[in-house]
Amino acid sequence: MEVIYTGLRQTPEQIVEAAMQEDVDVLCLSILSGAHMTLLPEIVDLMKRRSLDDVLVIAGGIIPDEDVPKLKEMGIAEVFGPGTPTHVTVDYIKSNLRRKL
Amino acid sequence: MAFSARDLVQGVLKRDRRSVARLMTAIENEDPESKAAVSELYSHTGNAYTVGVTGPPGSGKSTLIGQLAKQYRKHETRVGIIAVDPSSPFTGGALLGDRIRMQELSTDEGVFVRSMATRGSLGGLARSTSELVNVLDAFGCDIIFVETVGAGQSEVDVMRLADTVVLVLAPGLGDDIQAIKAGIMEIGDIIVVNKADRENAERTVLEIMSALELDTEQKKWSPPIVRTIATSNEGIEKLVEKLEEHKCFLKEAGMGRRRIKGGIQLVEALKVRLAETVIADLRNDPDFENMIEKIARRELNPYEAAITLVNKIVGKT
For domain A19-96, is the CATH number 3.40.50.280? Predict the structure, then answer.
């Protein structure tokens, strides 16, 4: 896997534009600020509007369990909380890619 | 490929960013259809000025490129950036982190940034870097920065690809003497001492100057040394000035460099084509398998075997 790490404190526009330029298969969003219910759906929405809906979008960080179902409804495929072993995330990605490689 | 090569080429020429991104992926993945696309785009290239940025890790290449891009954008110049990072030789994976220094550029329509992993290539660049440069050229970039994996002696690839090579050093990395010893000075058309606010910056400048004096060959261009502090945007205008000077120098020097690049591109393309056709055919030849057996038993050495095979191919006995 080639992981493009783009750094902290980005706007949704910066993230989506980077995802498009890099032609990613998966977009992983790590959020610790608590603003996930606002920002994550905004990102998913931008991805859709740019026709990037074949990109798998997953999230992690400080996201309370009770918010997860709503996030999934809004287009976040899966949420991986703190302490999730890396192989769990890797296996999920491998089995859920939307694009053919 | 979900999109046809034809569609992507049209997209690139119409300046559609998504087409650029998708075509780059197809090329990196060695998608057979992408070859036709690269061929078709070639006649639309030649406008972009390519700057290779090399140097040891931690010297500030990414930050510097980010600042250079912003400076060029002030004049509405269209900028392309390709940042290359190493792939793990064990897992084949890679962590590409150069975009961290270029976040604000993401939303500038006049900049296109793409990260690449070397995927096993040595020499500081990925195998398909020059093809991705061609895509950005055809897309309409006026200037393309290529950031290489900077580890020392092996960045020679960038010399073949770029019009101007900028070598970025920073004081205190312990690499100053290394860079001089390795002859890396010969690679740089412009030498940048970044993090010039550090204590031993002037000593670094002096060491570079004396190393450059060691070069006895009469060159028409003497590499200037530019001091920068990329994080606070200092020295960037001066660096742009030097880039423009070198660009003029190249123009006056005529087609020479382009001819060399053309020659190298042809040889590289030839090697790939030969490997694909000739070697693939050989694998079906029973002689080939017999030779492998003999080599394994030390009855034949691979070098002689190669000569025999090539003679067979070209019809000599």
Answer: yes
